[in-house]
């Protein structure tokens, strides 16, 4: 009976440890945090993270403040960086006692994360016991010697009784461990369950793009690039089919120049430079577009029938923010660049060189995770300069541009990325004052294009 009582007291003491699992950082952080909470149930008393003070948990003093405010012995921290989840546990003084890395959170790695959390707890508790063990060992030894000298030779009945009690305690301890193991995998309530599970649907919606379901556990550890809607970078190279037309109303008629269909080579770079931090930081967005026409000759229909070599090209960079709303992303971007339609010497149309500032709205939605998404861009272009147009058709030229692009795109777990784009850009021009050629009144410059781009997501 004495042994059984000691086992019961030991079991209560083990469960007297308390801990808090603070919110994790990074993509799929909610999945990893829920796995850790499940692993700790039945092993420690879990306190809710909602009551934690707003402290810098990357510092010792910040972790100590959290532990003191919640009255816990252990503070669990987690951060998803790239393809790994870094787990750490700090004691009540704020010192990190153990840490471990696992594959990034997913349905297939939950058990690994749970096992790692239990190992961290055991390692931290063992470290604490070792610190206290040096002081306890002498007294335990003295107590043992004293008991030995006082008890003398025990009779066989007492020995048998002790052995029976010992066996009972071993059996009870085994049952207790089994019970703890079952409790850890159950969904019994704990103080933080409502907080963690309340976000589960949103988190799972964000994580539904995870293509881990079709991959092995080994691929989680070292395979291909990230599969999410906020890659650190996407680099796409492609071919475009474009058409450009200029129409200018003159005081005595009209002037037109149509390029017909021509080919372009394009490069597009998109980046969420802070995607690895997760949360709202991943919405920061950078975009760079560049394209150049290939082998275009423009047939003019002016005073003289002419064919002139023509080179269209453009470079536009943007910076903006896309608000993460589950599978939906909406936001605004602003950028600057130059759009040039360089025409050789002729008597019909001049080179157009638009130096511009662009503001745009962006909306994107994942239709099948990051493998298939739809994006719509609309923008307004303020023109600072129109090139030779200002000299040909009026000494003073003003204008603006509007554009829209529909994109069907995606990228896969292996990193392969693709995009189909269909876009239209239109410039409205107004001329006034004396001109070197014929004085114009107004004009339009339209650009239609479709493209296929292939590349890689990092």
Strand arrangement across the biggest beta sheet: 6-7-8-10-11-12-13-14-15-16
Shape: elongated
* Uncertain stretches of 5 or more adjacent residues: 1-15, 132-190, 193-227
Note the beta-strand portion.
Answer: 35-45%
Question: Can you give the helix content as a percent range?
Answer: 25-40%
State the helix count.
9
The computed structural class is alpha+beta
Q: Provide mean pLDDT, rounded.
A: 77
How many strands? 16
Termini separation: 63 Å
Radius of gyration based on Cα positions: 35 Å
Largest sheet: 10 strands, antiparallel, barrel
Helix/strand order, N-terminal first:
HEHEHEEEHHHHHEEEEEEEEHEEE
Question: What's the helix and strand layout?
Answer:
Layout: H1 2-16, E1 18-21, H2 29-40, E2 45-47, H3 60-70, E3 74-81, E4 84-90, E5 96-103, H4 110-151, H5 156-185, H6 193-198, H7 200-207, H8 217-222, E6 234-250, E7 253-271, E8 284-294, E9 296-301, E10 305-325, E11 328-343, E12 352-366, E13 373-387, H9 389-392, E14 396-411, E15 416-432, E16 440-457
Parallel strand pairs: 1-2, 1-3
Antiparallel strand pairs: 3-4, 4-5, 6-7, 6-16, 7-8, 8-10, 9-10, 10-11, 11-12, 12-13, 13-14, 14-15, 15-16
Helix pairs in contact: 1-5, 2-4
Kindly describe this structure.
The chain has 458 residues and is of the alpha+beta class. The chain contains nine helices and 16 strands. It starts with a helix and ends with a strand. Mean pLDDT is 77; it is low at 1-15, 132-190 and 193-227.
